[in-house]
Amino acid sequence: MDRQEAKRRATELVAKMTLEEKASQLRYDAPAIERLGIPEYNWWNEALHGVARAGTATMFPQSIGMAASFDEDLLLRIGEIIGIEGRAKYNIQSKLGDRDCYKGLTFWSPNVNIFRDPRWGRGQETYGEDPYLTSRLGVQFVKGIQGDGEYLRAAACAKHFAVHSGPEPERHSFNAIASKKDMEETYLPAFEACVTEAKVESVMGAYNRTNGEPCCAHEVLMNEYLRGKWGFDGHYVSDCWAIKDFHEFHKITECPEHSVKLALEKGCDVNCGCTYQRILDAHAQGLIDEKYIDRSCIRLFTTRFMLGMFDNTELDKIPFEKVECKEHIDVAHRAARESVVMLKNDGILPLKKDAIKTIGVIGPNANSRMALIGNYHGTSSRYTTILEGIQDYVGDSARVYYSEGTHVWYLTLEGLSKKDKPDQLAEVTTVCEHSDVVVLVVGLNEKCEGEEGDAGNGDKDSLQLPEPQRILMDTVFASGKPVILVSMTGSAIDLRVANEKANAIIQAWYPGARGGKDIAEILFGEVSPSGKLPVTFYNSDADLPDFRDYSMANRTYRYFEGTPLFPFGFGLTYGNCKATAITASGESSNTKVSVTIKNDSAVSTEDVLQIYIKDEESEFAVRNYSLCAFKRVKLAAGEEKQVEIDINERAFTSVNDDGERAIRSKKFTLFAGFSQPDSRSCELTGNGAVSTSFSL
Questions:
Q1: b or e along 614-646 (b: 16 or more beta carbons within 10 Å of the residue's beta carbon)?
Q2: Most exposed: 282, 446, 568, 623, by fewest CB within 10 Å?
Q3: Rounded CA gap, 60 and 48, in Å?
C-alpha cells in the first residue's frame, strides 16, 4: 500500500476517534479501541542482530561484527530474515491474542550512530566509525527488514537521532556539542541515507541534547533536516523515557505537561515511556492544540496501514516454521565467518588437525554463551561456544584440555578463594604444559560494555582488559607454548601485549549463538578469515581526546594524527590478495574505477577490496582520506582479475565550516587495496595500495 493511500485511510480512522482515544494511541503501549475494531498495539520491538527479546529466533553476530563483513548483500539478507521471522512470530502471537512488548512489527533497529570513541559501551550496536560504511550497511539492513512488496514486511527505525555515542551515565542530561561541519560530514550521513535511500519508516530520537536542544524535540534535526531537507514522512519515536528527561534532568521544561507540549509540537509521535499519559492534562490546561495530537496519530496509523494490520495480506501467510529454520541458520554461519578479523598470524594458522595431539582452550570467554550474543539479543535453540566448536571439530583426533582460568572481571571464580590473584592459575599452567598449542579466549560481554543500567555505567573506563584477564594472559604467555589469542569484544581494546607475545590474534566480536563452530573452522583452515576492522584499534586510550568532546579532531581513521595498532579496514586472510593496478574514468556523477587484483598465494580466499579518496585541493577536506567504495571478492589461488566499482558523486564533496556540502576541487587521488593506503596497514600486510590521480 502506498503512503498516500495509507495516510488517507489513517486520516479517516483518526477522524472517528475521541480526543481521549487519539491521545492513548501516542503511547508505545497503545490500548485497543474496540468500537473501531482497533486492537491494542505495542510499538516497542528490537532486532539489532536478529529478532530480540521475544523467544526463539535466528541470532546473528552483533552489529559491529556484521559491519566487519563489509558485505552489503549479507546485510540485506539478514534484514530480510529478521523481517520474515518477525512477521512469522507476529502472525501467530497476534492470532493468539499476545500483543505484548516485543511482539509487534516495528523494530527499533538499526543503530546507525557513529562509533567515534571505543570507550562507548553501545558502540557494539553500530556499524563502526565510518559514515560511508555505516550508510551502505544501514540502507541494506533497512531495505531487507521492510521489503519491497505491496505492504511493509516490518518497519525499521534508524536510531539514535542524532550525535549519540556516550557517555552513557550522563546521557539523560548530556549536551553533545558538534560543529556544523562535523554534523554534516560525520554524524548525519547515515541517517540521511536511511531516510532518502531506504525510506526507513521510523526514526528514534536520542536521550541527549545536541547543541542545546533535546533530540526528541529538536527543531533543527527533526524539522529542518529530517522532515524538511530529507523529506521524511514516517513516524518519530522517543528513546525510552527520554521525554521525562526534559524536565527531570535537562531542565529545559518545568513539568511533564510542558515536556509533552514541546515534544508533540516538534513532531515526536510516539513516546516510549510514560510522559504522554499527561497529554490530556496538557490539553486541558490549554498547552496543546488538538491538531498536534491528530498529526501524530495519523502518522502512526499510516504506518500500521502500510504494515497491512487492517487488511488480509500475503504476509499473514508467513508460517512459524520460518523461525530459526536451516536456511536462516546457514546465513548466520555465513555472517559469523565473514565477521572474524585476523589481526596477526606468524604462520601458526591455520592449525593442522592431523599434526596436533593436544589443544589447550583457556579463558573466561572460551565456554561462555554470554560472549556469543552481545546485547539486545534473542534466544537461540542451540549455542556453540568456542570450546565446543573446537571439541566438535577435532572429535577424537586430539585431546582438548580446558580451563576457565578466571572470571571476566572478578579476581576469583570461587567465593572462598584467596583474593590476591586468580584462583585457577595452577590449572592454567598445567593445561599449557599438556598442550601442543593454546587457544586463549579473552574479552568482554554485555555486562562489561553496553547500555547504562544493563552494564554498570555502560562505558569502558579504559581500553585495557580487566586485570584478572591481564594476569591470565601473562601466565599463558609465560608458558612458552604457541598461543592463539581470540578476543571476543564489541569494541577496540588494547592488544599491545598480545600483539607482542601471541602467535596469532583473532578478533571474533560477539559472533552469534553458534559462532563457536565458525571460529573453529577458521582456526583449522576450513574457511579463510576475511573480515575487516570497522573501527580503529588504538594503542591505548592515551591516544584519544576527552570522551565528552564530540569534535572529530584526532578521532577515527579519517582524522587520527597518530599511528594505530590495527587500522580501520585491516584484516588478514590465509591468502595474499593485492591490488596491482588502478584506472579511473568518467565525470563526478558517473565515475568508474577499474582495479586489477591478484591472490598471490596457494590458498583461495574472500577479501574486501577498498577504495579511498583524498581531496588534494579543498581546505575543507578531511585530514586523511575517506572510504568511498568497497566490494567483497572471491579469489582462487593464484587468480588475477579486473574489478569495476562505481564511485558516488558525494565522494568528491567536502563540507565547509557552515555545514555546506559541495564539490570544491578538481584534483583527487583514488587508492585501491585490501586495506587503507596508510603505512601501518602496509607494514602489517606487506602490501601497499595502488593509486591514481583523478581530475574532474
A1: bbeebebbbebbbbbbbbbbebeeebeeebebe
A2: 623
A3: 9
Dihedral sign computed on CA atoms, order 495, 609, 648, 223:
negative
Instruction: Indicate the length of the chain as a whole number.
Output: 696
Domain ranges of the chain: 3-322, 340-535, 577-695
Contact between 276 and 243 under an 8 Å Cβ cutoff? The reply is yes
Rounded alpha-carbon distances, angstroms, from residue 61 to 213, 245, 274, 532, 684:
35, 32, 33, 14, 26
pTM value?
0.98
CATH of domain 577-695: 2.60.40.10
Contact 90, 51 (CB under 8 A): no
Q: What is the DSSP string of 37-65?
A: TB--EE--B--BTBS-SSSB---PPPHHH
User: Per-residue DSSP letters for 491-558?
Assistant: S----HHHHHH-SEEEE--S--TTHHHHHHHHHTTSS------SS-B-S-GGGS--TT----TT-HHH
Phi and psi at 444, nearest 5°, equal -125, -170
Q: Are 620 and 656 in contact (CB under 8 A)?
A: yes
Q: How far apart are CA 238 and CA 172, in angstroms?
A: 13
Cβ 122 vs Cβ 451: under 8 Å: yes
pLDDT, averaged across the chain: 97
Continuous segment of H or E residues that includes residue 181: helix 180-182
414 C-beta neighbours (distance < 10 Å), count? 10
Report how far apart, in Å, the C-alpha atoms of 472 and of each of 51, 54, 96, 409, 422 are: 36, 37, 51, 11, 8
| 523 vs 386: CA distance, rounded Å | 10
Task: Return the active site residues.
Answer: 239, 449
Q: How far apart are CA 222 and CA 236, in angstroms?
A: 9
pLDDT over threshold 90, residue 454: no
Domain 3-322: which CATH class? alpha beta
* pLDDT tier at 453, thresholds 50, 70, 90: confident
Cα separation, 314 vs 330, in Å, equals 25
